[in-house]
Specification:
By secondary structure, the chain is α/β, with parallel strands linked by helices. It has 15 helices and 15 strands.
């Protein structure tokens, strides 16, 4: 229930206003400006209804003080028995939300208060929409930075930077819609391992930031980093299939606050260095900033680390089924090999007069499962697939196309379609 602070030195008017507004709102009452300031700081009302002419502190002065004490502008409505337009005009000049004359009419007072609070809700909703990353529901970069500047200056806990390892490959191979699903799932995982009082934000792309209050032990973050890496890989396979072999994971840079400072910009540089340290040492883990000495040593990745970063986990059977942009990169790489080393490589176009999208999805899987692990497949045009056949001589392409034709037409749902193949050497 929304809360209204009512201020009036006349007890009878205070009771009348409170009785009217208590039908829809929670009310708190003050008989002076000094008492109103005390209640305002303690109760955090959504709105103030104040008499204009009071002894010691009038409504104008009260309004000025309250605005100074509040980080957000709290609407104030003045009430007065003064019939002149001058006081009303001055009230609006200093930022009053509305003005009402005594004696109070219940219907008018309720309507005007409702209008003010409805408008306040709309403004807050718009502000929230501006602050939120629409995809993940976390704070966006600007909002996260703004809030973290306040939090780091006063709170105790750990500031984290989280970056997804191997995420670019998800977009390149499976497409951006699949990448978006991974980001949304990861945001949900972050919410699960943090509390409502903690802060979560998306800094852009696959980079996230978090502040976890009152954490003082590295082991807590170690456990969470391990969970995120295991859970992310598990969820990614559910989204992209069991054959997904991208080395997808999470690297986490961390620093304790206020142990290593209270300035967010300085702390951000520290977690960025800590994150880089994780990336240097095989990824999929965490690192705490402690001092420049523990962060600046040049650690070169050995061959094992390189294999961990670039290699495949659980290599799948069959050809690569790729998005067109990823296919282009592999095509260009093979073209260079052909040009430089006189290798054999063929590009084959398969055209089929299927009509439904589900048919093309089924055909893509069929092609993948009936080609070599060195081959690549992608959806080309509306009714086409492109097939790249490395280390294949031109005279042997017909063996591949005949085998594929047999496999495709053996599927009942494809038996009615017409197939045609065209091939060319790179």
């Amino acid at each position: 229930m929304q809360k209204i602070l009512i201020v009036d030195d006349e007890i009878i008017m205070l009771k009348i206003a409170s009785k009217i507004l208590s039908m829809k709102y929670e009310t708190i009452c003050a008989t002076s400006g000094e008492k109103a300031i005390e209640l305002f700081e303690r109760e955090k009302p959504d709105m103030v209804l104040s008499d204009l002419l009071m002894p010691e502190m009038d409504g104008y002065e009260l309004h000025r003080i309250l605005q100074e004490k509040s980080s957000n502008s709290v609407p104030i409505m003045f009430m007065t028995a003064d019939e002149s337009d001058e006081s009303e005009s001055h009230g609006f000049e200093i930022g009053a939300a509305d003005y009402i004359r005594k004696p109070l009419r219940a219907d008018i007072l309720l309507k005007r208060v409702s209008n003010i609070l409805d408008n306040l809700d709309k403004v807050q909703n718009l502000k929230q929409a501006v602050d939120v990353d629409t995809m993940t529901g976390l704070l966006n970069k600007a909002a996260a930075q703004r809030e973290l500047e306040k939090i780091c200056a006063t709170a105790s806990g750990v500031l984290l930077m989280l970056d997804l390892d191997g995420f670019k490959l998800v977009n390149d191979i499976y497409g951006h819609p699949t990448g978006d699903k991974i980001l949304i799932k990861f945001a949900a995982m972050l919410k699960k391992i943090t509390r409502e009082t903690d802060l979560l934000g998306r800094m852009g792309g696959d980079e996230f930031i978090a502040f976890c209050h009152d954490i003082k032990m590295e082991s807590v973050i170690a456990t969470r980093a391990k969970y995120l890496n295991e859970k992310l890989f598990y969820e990614a396979k559910k989204i992209m299939g069991e054959n997904m072999n991208i080395p997808l994971g999470v690297s986490v840079g961390a620093v304790f606050v206020p142990n290593f400072g209270t300035d967010f910009k300085s702390l951000y540089q520290k977690i960025d260095k800590a994150l880089y340290k994780v990336k240097q040492n095989g990824k999929h883990s965490y690192f705490f900033y402690k001092d420049e000495e523990n962060i600046s040593s040049d650690t070169q990745e050995n061959l094992y680390d390189v294999n961990q970063i670039l290699g495949e986990r659980n290599p799948p059977k069959g050809a690569y089924l790729l998005e067109l942009e990823a296919f282009k990169l592999i095509y260009r790489h093979n073209f260079r090999l052909v040009t430089a080393y006189k290798k054999d490589c063929q590009i084959v176009t398969l055209t089929i007069n299927a009509e439904t999208e589900s048919a093309f999805e089924e055909l893509g899987e069929l092609l993948k499962n009936n080609l070599r692990v060195s081959d690549c497949v992608t959806r080309g045009g509306k009714n086409q697939f492109f097939i790249l056949l490395p280390d294949t001589e031109a005279e042997n392409v017909h063996c591949v196309t005949e085998r594929l034709t047999e496999k495709i037409l053996a599927v009942k749902s494809f038996s009615k379609y017409k197939l045609s193949f065209d091939s060319k050497s790179l």
